[in-house]
Amino acid sequence: MKYETKDNFLILTEKSLILKLRSLGAGIEEGDETKITFLEAAYFAERGVLPISKDELLELASRTDKLYKEKFLVIKYLRDHGYIVRPSLDGTPYLRLHRKGYRPGEDKTYYLIEVVKKDWTASSDSLAAPLETAGKLRKELAIAIVGDDKEPKFLKFARLNFE
């Protein structure tokens, strides 16, 4: 498999892998290449789709993301349950969740997910920025709390209008 790393992405040029990832709703095609985040690539490496070490990809992700383990577990949990979830490509720390049955580009992002550790405490300060970002993007916000049992717990926040 031919690949290179650039910024926070694995760049793939092998056509069969590009087509496979497209069918799974992963990666971003740019010309003859596809770039995929290290966290997404680690999931597909674990599933046997990409012939590269999951641990190597997680090591690359750990260089720029303190919550890489927790985000990987959330991606794995949601993907295993049939959802397409991808890290934001705009440099924000959120994951973007698409509705079941829709691939990126077919439908808009449904939720922004902020991943937090098990010792996270909710406060107006800790929720202000994620709620503001979700509001600007017209998305609902979910907080994914990753604890010892490795299965994330989700808290959903939504906009409310009083008419």
UniProtKB/TrEMBL annotation:
Which GO terms label this protein's molecular function in UniProt?
Answer: tRNA-intron lyase activity
Record gene name: endA_1
Concerning InterPro entries, the annotation shows:
tRNA_intron_Endo_cat-like_sf, tRNA_intron_Endonuc_cat-like
The answer on whether this UniProt entry bears the keyword Repeat reads: no
Q: What is this protein called?
A: tRNA-splicing endonuclease
- Specify the superkingdom: Archaea
Keywords on record: Endonuclease, Hydrolase, Lyase, Nuclease
Enzyme Commission identifier(s): 4.6.1.16
